[in-house]
Amino acid sequence: MTISELLQYCMAKPGAEQSVHSDWKATQIKVEDVLFAMVKEVEGRPAASLKTSPELAELLRQQHSDVRPSRHLNKAHWSTVYLDGSLPDSQLFIWSMLLSTGGKCAVGR
């Protein structure tokens, strides 16, 4: 998955807003003014920092080598996911949907 594909998917969600955080050179995605994703290149690879429950973050980190604690965010809630790695696109889409709807919906592609 590319950064462009992830941004396109996220921005198709109702209420999604996109802005650039210039200090971190990252694109922020918010729903109802709540940040749920930051997208940028990390170590030359497309990546997204996604917010979730500490339990889900730990589970995904154990299962996928391309899911790691975010470097500059609360590591209990934020994970950096390399978009070109071991986590299938469909799982990223479901994760994104869960985050953007407060866990009320789990629809993949």
Automatic annotation (TrEMBL):
Q: Which InterPro entries match?
A: YjbR, YjbR-like_sf, YjbR/MT2646/Rv2570-like
* Source organism, top-level taxon: Bacteria
Tell me what this protein is called: Protein yjbR
Q: Which organism is it from?
A: Salmonella enterica I
